[in-house]
């Protein structure tokens, strides 16, 4: 299933956040979205997943979600959004409880996603006992349990330290290699975008508009940090982003 | 700042060098991080309690405190022993506990329900929040005659008084707790397509539980106060009636015995809430 934004504009109380954004997230690929902080990336993701209604334009699903998908559009949040009063397994079970599944089926799904994210040993742990990286792995496991058609990831690694981020990026690459999931991946970190993105859309500062869309053909599993082609793409994007970020930085925050 | 600059400082007063270790000598960094973390020390409460009773008993025995001003603790204990042996303790405590349980349960249920509504629905908030704020400062005891007219002189008016007293603080604690539930968790629930019911039961209520439980500490103390007031104003049995009778006879031993029973009741309630907190909030570690 593809996801598309069609000429979307959005404002909060008179502050224009997104202007005429048209963007497509094709199935089986990771579409990265980069832009300076405050440019409307999170807003765009909320519009894509139906957590908010656009003022103008439409968010569209093209094609049907795969059979058995419990929650076609599934988020992974920057700050994990785990319930502190549920264990790791309980947090994952939460998103299955409203679906007509037998107890055995639920347990099976939970065990399966825990194994896929290598969390099996932590099923009974409380979120507070886990490191940031582990918590985000739980959130990813929870997203997988809902069998999404598209994963909407809002800076999933931004709250983590640099080493953990590297490890989790490797995990995501391996996961994509196995499952070919579809994702819209928001980040303000170009290195992340160049490592994980098949397409990279650069947004301008507020009001966010699409400045450029770059496609990277190197397969995810073959991308090396020192690959000259990737370094060139990153330098190109950085030049674009740099002006926007500098201007955005000098702006007064509206609210 | 380095050692070199310290040593080179020409202005360093000589006195600072003579009394203290030589300037630049290693010395421990002073510790400044203590306090502001109440914890443990469970022995302090009982110890203070025993100490006070001990001084009091000693003062009475030595004649320094006359039995006309304060009864002797051992005499109060003797009255309690008598009450226990004759079974009159349960004659009074039984009805009191029943009233407390029924009244508090009604008040808590209604308070949590209304508090949730105020926390969740804008219309309920706009309508009910000012009403609750207006009811909060009303001394509930003043309304007992009204409740007697509405519900009769029997148990129902006492239940109503206690329930009403528990209701308002519970409402305020509950909707305060709901307001403080992390909105991003609710967003998460919506994004996974959870039903409204699931979001309320699995996200909002557990998130508000710490606030509701600490509100219960306040509201149940109020419940005990109202229980005694109601029993003083019209009851044959009950700890309140017992205290009232003792007071009107100037039987200080019995009066103090009744007061001690009420304190113990307060302690027991507080202990039970502590247990409940540990069970429901074990995720906080
Ligand atoms: N719910 C909201 N109400 C009002 N303003 C908002 C809201 N959400 C975001 N904004 C504003 O919209 C702008 C874009 O926000 P956001 O989408 O979070 O940016 P980004 O994720 O790119 O940093 C910011 O200026 C922010 O203050
Ligand atoms: Mg954001």
TrEMBL record, chain A:
InterPro entries named in the record: AAA+_ATPase, ABC_transporter-like_ATP-bd, ABC_transporter-like_CS, ABC_transporter_ATP-bind, P-loop_NTPase
SMART domains per record: AAA
Keywords, alphabetical: ATP-binding, Nucleotide-binding, Transport
PROSITE patterns: ABC_TRANSPORTER_1, ABC_TRANSPORTER_2
Molecular function as annotated in GO: ATP binding; ATP hydrolysis activity
Gene3D superfamilies given in the database record: P-loop containing nucleotide triphosphate hydrolases
Record-linked CDD domains: ABC_NrtD_SsuB_transporters
Pfam families, per database record: ABC_tran
Annotated ranges, domain ABC transporter: 3-232
Family: Belongs to the ABC transporter superfamily.
PANTHER family linked to this entry: ABC TRANSPORTER ATP-BINDING PROTEIN, TAURINE IMPORT ATP-BINDING PROTEIN-RELATED
Protein name as it appears in the record: NitT/TauT family transport system ATP-binding protein
Organism, scientific name: Albimonas donghaensis
UniProtKB/TrEMBL annotation, chain B:
Alphabetized InterPro entries for the sequence: MetI-like (IPR000515), MetI-like_sf (IPR035906)
Pfam hit, one: BPD_transp_1
Keyword Cell membrane listed: yes
UniProt domain ABC transmembrane type-1: residue ranges: 93-273
Cellular component annotations (GO), alphabetically ordered: plasma membrane
TM spans (from-to): 42-65, 100-124, 131-153, 159-178, 199-229, 249-274
One example of a Gene Ontology biological process annotation: transmembrane transport
Subcellular location: Cell membrane
Ranges of biased composition (kind: Low complexity): 8-26
Family of this protein: Belongs to the binding-protein-dependent transport system permease family.
Protein name as catalogued: NitT/TauT family transport system permease protein
């Amino acid at each position: 299933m593809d996801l598309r934004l069609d000429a979307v504009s959005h404002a909060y109380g008179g502050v224009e956040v997104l202007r005429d954004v048209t963007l497509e997230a094709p199935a089986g690929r990771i579409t990265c979205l980069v832009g300076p902080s405050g440019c409307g990336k999170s807003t765009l993701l909320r519009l894509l997943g139906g957590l908010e209604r656009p003022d103008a334009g439409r968010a569209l699903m093209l094609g049907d979600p795969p059979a058995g998908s419990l929650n076609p559009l599934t988020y992974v949040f920057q700050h994990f959004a785990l319930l502190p009063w549920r264990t790791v397994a309980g947090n994952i079970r939460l998103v299955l409880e409203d679906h007509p599944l037998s107890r055995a089926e639920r347990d099976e799904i939970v065990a399966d996603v825990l194994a896929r994210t290598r969390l099996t040993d932590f099923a009974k742990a409380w979120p507070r006992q886990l490191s940031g990286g582990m918590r985000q792995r739980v959130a990813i496991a929870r997203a997988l349990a809902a069998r999404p058609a598209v994963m909407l990831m809002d800076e999933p690694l931004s709250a983590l330290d640099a080493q953990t981020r590297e490890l989790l990026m490797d995990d995501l690459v391996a996961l994509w290699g196995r499952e070919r999931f579809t994702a819209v991946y928001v980040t303000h970190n170009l290195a992340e975008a160049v490592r994980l993105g098949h397409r990279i859309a650069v947004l301008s500062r507020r009001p966010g508009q699409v400045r450029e869309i770059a496609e990277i053909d190197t397969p995810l599993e073959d991308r090396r940090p020192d690959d000259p082609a990737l370094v060139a793409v990153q330098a190109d994007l950085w030049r674009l982003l740099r002006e926007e970020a500098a201007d955005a930085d000098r702006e007064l925050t509206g609210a | 700042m380095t050692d070199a600059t310290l040593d080179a400082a020409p202005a360093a007063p000589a006195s600072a060098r003579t009394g203290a270790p030589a300037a630049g000598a290693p010395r421990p960094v002073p510790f400044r991080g203590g306090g502001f973390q109440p914890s443990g020390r469970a022995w302090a409460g009982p110890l203070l309690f025993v100490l006070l009773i001990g001084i009091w008993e000693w003062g009475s025995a030595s004649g320094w405190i006359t039995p006309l001003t304060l009864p002797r603790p051992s005499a109060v204990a003797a009255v309690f022993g008598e009450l226990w042996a004759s079974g009159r303790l349960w004659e009074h405590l039984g009805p009191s506990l029943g009233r407390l349980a029924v009244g508090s349960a009604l008040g808590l249920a209604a308070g949590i329900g209304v508090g949730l509504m105020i926390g969740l629905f804008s219309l309920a908030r706009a309508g009910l929040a000012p009403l609750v704020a207006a009811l909060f400062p009303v001394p509930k005891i003043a309304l007992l005659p009204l409740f007697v007219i509405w519900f009769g002189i029997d148990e129902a008016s006492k239940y109503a008084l206690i329930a009403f007293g528990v209701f308002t603080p519970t409402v305020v604690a509950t909707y305060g707790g709901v307001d403080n539930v992390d909105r991003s968790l609710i967003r998460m629930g919506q994004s996974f397509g959870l039903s409204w019911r699931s979001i309320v039961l699995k996200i909002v209520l557990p998130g508000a539980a710490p606030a509701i439980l600490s509100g219960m500490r306040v509201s149940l103390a109020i419940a005990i106060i109202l229980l005694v007031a109601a029993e003083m104003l019209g009851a044959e049995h009950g700890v309140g009636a017992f205290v009232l009778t003792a007071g009107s006879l100037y039987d200080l031993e019995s009066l103090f015995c009744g007061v001690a029973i009420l304190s113990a009741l307060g302690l027991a309630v507080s202990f039970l809430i502590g247990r409940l907190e540990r069970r429901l909030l074990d995720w906080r570690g």
